[in-house]
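ok so I'm stuck.
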Amino acid sequence: MFPNNKTQRLLLISNSTLHGSGYLDHAEPEIRSFLGEAKRVLFVPYALFDRDKYAANARERFQKMGYELTPVHTAANPVAAVNETDAVFIGGGNTFRLLKALYEFDLIEAIRNRVSNGMPYIGSSAGSNVAAPTIKTTNDMPIVQPPSFNALGLVSFQINPHYLDPDPSSKHMGETREERIIQFLEENDTPVVGLREGAMLRTENGETILRGSTGARIFRRAMEPLEISPGARVDFS
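replied:
not stuck anymore, here's the structure
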């Protein structure tokens, strides 16, 4: 499930909008650098209910960056659309709704096969969640039921986008994000990368590097969380 070859290229963004800036503004330099000469981007809007509106917003933003964006939900044959595009971008929203649709339209294997052969994959929030082995570390409510929690498995670790550090001044008595991830690791062995807003992971040439303006936390079973800064390599070997 985890290709881990030098042709695989991923850009996994924690959030599409950073406080104080517009849609994908903070990620634009990284997106431009990552896509290189690719021109046609297939957008997957399944994580939101209003797919037309979501696609229109994404198309406008990518056109400003010089890319032609086509939404997969308008394609007569979604699998063929995946096979014919230069790159794919899966946007954020509800991860359960997104994964359910990926199964419904037979896109799990199609995307996985193209990415394993070098097609650039960009994910934001829920789109980053589904790049992991499962969606068990999403922050979303299960508003629909996908046939499985198993996702694309493009990386060997779990992702928790929008990761929030514990706030010692908070009066909230529920679990912190860290506590919820530790609960996951009580039942599972797969490491988890907590991506703060503003952070992103870029995989190329067999390496995954933390990029962006903020750091991340690495969680492993029965181990203390590890803080990493932009520029660090994410390596669980």
